[in-house]
Design a protein that fits this description.
The protein is built from 10 helices and 13 strands. By secondary structure, it is an alpha/beta fold. Helix 5 crosses helix 7. The N and C termini lie close together (about 5 Å).
């Protein structure tokens, strides 16, 4: 099983290799791939050094699967070329997510849409993944009408440059800025570029991707996405209006028994999910469950997950695991 990781020298690419190793994905040969400036560098996988190669050499090596985390423009150019060579691409960028011909997959929810003909599979946005993992079992039972979400997102979602900016600011060191403004001791209510409707691209990703993954265009979603000075993972305050009423204890039991979710919800001992507790974990953590007393059939919840793992690398590897289990990877 030859596996290519495209963008192998980046934050998410490095995490993808870590997750492949931890989950014992049956890699017989790792093919680390990156831009020309990184070709020849070495990366470590399971204690062995591998040299980074370029795109054309990676296609020539004919991996069974290529997991991309190299940005949208790179994916638009190269993913079809990998796919044309018979290589299954799992892409972490936004390039293919809303393409109606490409599946957008969170394995706990909709892996069943995948077929042997799917050669480019989209990995959803990090903030969308953790939210839909928590919402999907509730939607199946109570029917979601509307979601209002505010995110509190880690600097790791931007990449190494943003982590460096935060650390420099904490040390009082001048350096390259990933953001227009300081991030330490600050929050920035903008993730990605602004669109004509006044929302950011990140906010509209959450709106559109949620409906596609959960296979229901009637779910109304509105989002505000915010960058905060933490590194462990993304947090979300989510207000969910259901078609049908619920009992809080039933909600807790349902979440507790749903795949990929850990319930941390005990206000008597002040137990609730935090990014530092989700760091380096694959689950989605849910807590602060309470009824919205301002309107009927509405729940408030707090959702936390490691954005580099379940929000990116782990979800992509789980897609590959599903394909392998169904005989869709050769």
């Amino acid at each position: 099983m030859k596996v290519a990781v495209v963008g192998a020298t980046g934050l998410v690419g490095t995490k993808m290799m870590q997750v492949l190793a931890e989950r014992n994905f049956p890699v017989t040969e790792l093919i680390p791939v990156a831009s020309e400036k990184s070709v020849g560098k070495e990366v470590d996988f399971k204690g062995k050094k591998y040299k980074v190669i370029g795109m054309k050499d990676a296609i020539a090596a004919r991996p069974a699967v290529a997991i991309f985390s190299a940005g949208g423009s790179t994916s638009l150019e190269w993913a079809p070329q990998f796919a044309a060579a018979g290589i299954t691409v799992i892409d972490n960028s936004s390039a293919w997510r809303m393409d109606p011909s490409k599946p957008l997959v969170v394995p706990e929810i909709n892996a069943d849409v995948l077929t042997e003909n799917d050669k480019i599979i989209a990995n959803p946005n990090c903030s969308t993944i953790q939210m839909v993992v928590a919402l999907d079992p509730l939607h199946k039972k109570y029917g979601i009408k509307r979601v209002v979400v505010s995110t509190y997102q880690s600097v790791t979602g931007t990449g190494v440059k943003a982590v460096t900016q935060l650390m420099n600011e904490r040390k009082g060191v001048q350096g390259e800025m990933a953001y227009k403004y300081p991030i330490d001791l600050n929050v920035i209510p903008q993730i990605d570029v602004f669109l004509d409707n006044g929302y950011t691209k990140e906010e509209m990703k959450m709106v559109k991707e949620t409906c596609k993954i959960m296979r229901d265009d009637n779910i109304k979603v509105t989002a505000t996405t915010v960058r905060i000075p933490v590194m462990g993972g993304h947090s979300e305050s989510v207000n969910v209006e259901f078609e049908n009423d619920f009992e809080l204890n039933d909600i807790k039991a349902l979440l507790q028994n749903s795949r990929g979710i850990v319930l941390v919800d005990d206000i008597t001992t002040q137990q609730y999910p935090m990014p530092k507790d989700a760091h380096e974990k694959d689950e989605v953590f849910v807590g602060r469950l309470r009824r919205d007393e301002s309107q009927h059939n509405t729940l408030n919840m707090w959702i936390v997950s490691d954005n580099l793992r379940k929000g990116a690398a782990t979800n992509a590897v789980q897609i590959a695991e599903y394909l392998l289990s169904k005989g869709l990877l050769k």
